[in-house]
Amino acid sequence: MSGAGTQWTAVGVALKSGSKAGVAPLAGHGTLGAAAGIKGADALAGTGALTGHASGAAPDSAPLIGVGTLGAAGTAIVQSGPAALSGTGQLAATANALNPLPVNQWAATLAQPSAFGYVPPADQSAVIPLTLATSVGGGSGIPSQGNWLFCAVGWRQMPGAGPVTVSVQDDGHQWWRPGQPSNGAGTVRAAVWYQPNIGAVTGNPPAIVYVSPLGAVAGLAVLIVEVEAMGPWDQVYAVTTGYNTATRSLTISIGAP
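Predicted structure:
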């Protein structure tokens, strides 16, 4: 986020998202088809109806119903038939790695006028409707439930007024995770807030985002990015910021989780 002259500041956030691989309990009812080879090489234990038949004459072809193990020996018998199976077990679930992609972007700015005349409040909020009217990155222009929103904010502080931070909220009053702002000694500051799994509780994604400076600012710029395929959970791995008043470039880095 650049300011007038040589004021530059930046914020980086690394997130560790939830995995889709793991073990989940499986419970229910189904049908188990049982079959065995010749000479009773296989045994079937369980509860249900089992029919046995052979190439010979009766009584080898008589049905067997009951609980226990059927083992055929000395005769070429084929065991076949359905048996009811119910209970709980462990199902190992695996899937491909998450593949996050940005699908929408919205932007807004506000600034104090430089010409003489009406001057709006220096601590006014930026109001960003998440609609096609404010969309700047393609996509549908409407956020979707389950995706994530990232709100990158940059603001220019008033000289001599002291450090100022910002607050991000929305019309659904959902919980935004606050981001660590860059150095308060700089004229220009930046921060990134985010909201994972939007609309998970209310059923409705945010329609309007409000970015409020907590003090007087000369100007403020907002970029909101919607990202899909991030999963329902989040864990902040690391946050880093950078600030420099004497160059036009910054280098910040975060190690891999």
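Summary: The first strand starts at residue 8 and ends at 15.
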